[in-house]
Specification:
This protein is α+β, with helices and mostly antiparallel strands. The protein is built from 15 helices and 24 strands. The chain has helices spanning 2-18, 32-45, 94-110, 115-123, 134-143, 260-270, 301-318, 325-328, 341-344, 360-363, 373-377, 383-396, 423-427, 432-451, 489-493, and strands at 50-57, 63-69, 82-87, 125-129, 162-165, 176-180, 186-188, 196-198, 208-213, 215-218, 275-283, 287-290, 321-324, 351-357, 402-410, 414-421, 456-465, 470-479, 500-505, 511-514, 518-522, 546-554, 560-567, 571-578. The strands form five sheets. It has an eight-stranded mixed beta sheet. A six-stranded antiparallel beta sheet has the order 8-7-9-6-16-15. The protein is elongated and about 110 Å long. Residues 1-12 have low confidence and may be disordered. It binds zinc ion. Zinc ion is lined by residues 90, 93, 282.
């Protein structure tokens, strides 16, 4: 009877494991309702691996879905070291959210068949916030225009004079408007009249154009158009706690975590002290960015070496360029700017990374050897590069990257043309037929990153006689991970991590004679400093990854002891032993 039941249960378990995980679509971007359905479906398919919760509702009432992914049978999530991955901190950067979801799907689908994924979920926890700004993403999909984080007016509700970007001709995109103006700064480029190039300094009497973003003009006086103000200036990435910088800007909000979505995420990370590393998925640039952000921000030597290894692996897998945020900045490097790194790395000591997926310049075969991507974007490039972009759009995107100029009767400006490069779909996002291929190597890196975290383990737990009815108990604990238990040196310097403690639990009838039940054992090294055996200076000798706790107890034969080692960032490890008279 019992055996039959067991067979049935095993068969059910086998069926459950064999049930496929619903695929993630790559031919469109999911609106919030479809995302919700998919996540709920995934939880139903792998309830043992994934937990779905909401961090709260956005101002427009959308749930902020947060996923906890681990093999619950091998221990609770909070007792394992963790990484946290987020997507769509910026509304228009759809592919970042797709990358986060691709990783989730890889974990759910690969558990049990992919050895690395299985090991990751058996020994570590993965947290994922796939969409930090659900309001923002749906707004960009609905309105077809660029929105930084969310379409909430800030710093003022009152529209300021200037262009309010919107899709005015109803083609679902918000691109550019051009109209003839004898004093315009642009002229058509003769070899390909879709492109506009600057009018020469000494040039007059030609066919000149003025270019604006597609939209309506607020406060138009019939002659002058104000420089475009930021109508929705909030940048979630600048609203984290930590150093706010000294640059005057409206992007960071009135005070840290004033943005409800940021406050919810910051609380979620704060409440999970097992997090060791963080990755935020953005577009575009083909970059893996690390701290520092500002001049004068120090990084301890051990962390610099760890970052070099981890980001180097990301670059090797993705083909992206691993550099510091500071090295990316080409203008105003002296300005102190706020960034989420200021809290995640500089305060908490989490290894934090920004991945900028996709580089249309690389895709189009444009060489950045003699320049930098950011200099290019500031307009310092030859027109031939733009021809390459156009040709690539024509040949590989069916022309979808550039909207052909088409006549339109603008209510304020009269007859003009609407068209130009589609910055949202071409620049900020990966063409759908390349999307999965572009994000897949990054998910492989996230598995590697998770497996690099520290992991406490009990090496041995033994008893030997220590006199009449007395026993010496010895617990040997080790860190089997690559990173040290503290994760980063910054965490130690900032006192944002505590050390390991071990606790002996006494059974009834046993008594502690020597040694505290709870003992503090500090930090254990990983393998990060073991670089080479070719010299005396390139490795750490001995067993810096190991520590011992000892107790003397009075106990009768047959007494069962348990011991637990705990480290907030390196996980928990337990062991049991039964005192046996045979030991002497
Ligand atoms: Zn971004």
């Amino acid at each position: 009877m019992r055996a039959t039941l067991l067979v049935v249960l095993l068969a059910l378990a086998g069926l459950a494991a064999a049930q496929p995980v619903a695929p993630l679509p790559y031919d469109h971007i999911l609106r919030h309702a479809e995302l919700t359905n998919l996540l709920q479906q995934w939880v139903g398919e792998r309830p043992n691996l994934m937990k779905l919760e909401s961090l709260g509702k956005t101002p427009k009432g959308r749930e902020m879905w947060f996923l906890t992914i681990t093999n619950q049978a091998s221990g609770p999530a909070e007792e394992k070291p963790a990484i946290v991955v987020d997507g769509n901190m910026h509304a228009t950067e759809w592919a970042g959210g797709v990358a986060a979801l691709h990783f989730v799907h890889k974990l759910l689908d690969g558990y049990g068949s992919d050895e690395r994924v299985t090991r990751l979920l058996d020994t570590r926890t993965v947290y994922v916030l796939p969409r930090m700004t659900p309001d923002g993403v749906d707004a960009t999909l609905d309105q077809g225009r660029f929105i930084r984080s969310v379409d909430r007016p800030y710093p003022t509700e009152t529209p300021q004079p200037g262009i309010i970007p919107k899709d005015v001709n109803g083609d679902g995109r918000s691109v550019f408007m051009r109209y003839r103006d004898p004093n315009g700064p642009w002229k058509e480029y003769a070899p390909d009249k879709r492109l506009l190039v600057p009018r020469d300094p000494d040039e007059t009497g030609g066919d000149y154009w003025r270019v604006l973003r597609e939209g309506m003009i607020e406060g138009y006086d019939g002659a002058t158009i104000a420089d475009e103000p930021e109508h929705e200036a909030l940048d979630f990435g600048a609203n984290f706690p930590g150093d706010r910088g000294t640059t005057v800007s409206q992007t960071d909000g009135p005070y840290p975590t004033s943005v409800p979505e940021v406050a919810a995420y910051v609380a979620a990370i704060s409440n999970r002290p097992n997090i060791v590393a963080h990755v935020t998925c953005h577009t575009f640039g083909g970059l893996v960015l690390t701290p520092p952000v500002n001049l004068g921000e120090d990084m301890p030597e051990p962390d610099r070496l760890v970052y070099a290894t981890l980001a180097g692996k990301a670059a090797a897998l993705t083909g992206y360029n691993a550099i510091s945020y500071l090295d990316l900045r080409s203008v105003d490097r002296e300005k102190q700017i706020p960034s989420a790194f200021g809290w995640l790395y500089d305060r908490l000591g989490l290894y934090s990374f920004i991945t900028e997926f996709w580089n249309p310049l690389t895709a189009a075969g444009i060489s950045l050897e003699k320049t930098t991507a950011s200099a290019w974007l500031w307009g310092f490039h030859p027109v031939e590069d733009e021809i390459k972009l156009l040709r690539w759009s024509d040949q590989h995107l069916d022309g979808d990257g550039f909207v052909a100029w088409r006549g339109f009767d603008h209510p304020q400006l009269g007859k003009l043309e609407i068209g130009g490069f589609d910055l949202i779909r071409y620049w900020y996002n990966i063409p759908f037929d390349r999307l999965e291929r572009e994000v897949a190597p990054h998910s492989e890196w996230l598995v590697y990153l998770g497996l690099s975290t520290p992991r406490l383990s009990v090496r041995s737990f033994t008893a030997e006689p220590a006199g009449e009815g007395l026993w010496r108990l010895r617990l040997v604990v080790e860190n089997t991970g690559w990173l040290p238990t503290q994760g980063s040196q910054m965490a130690v310097d900032r006192q944002s991590v505590t050390g390991m403690n071990v606790e002996l639990k006494l059974p009834a009838g046993a008594r502690l004679v020597q040694g505290a039940a709870v003992q503090q054992l500090g930090q254990l090294a990983g393998r990060t400093t073991q670089r080479s055996t070719a010299s005396w200076w390139s490795y750490t000798p001995g067993t810096p990854d190991r520590a011992i706790a000892e107790w003397i107890v009075a106990a009768p034969s047959g007494a069962a002891f348990s011991a637990e080692a705990r480290h907030e960032r390196a996980g928990n490890a337990r062991a049991e032993l039964v005192i046996s008279a045979k030991a002497d």
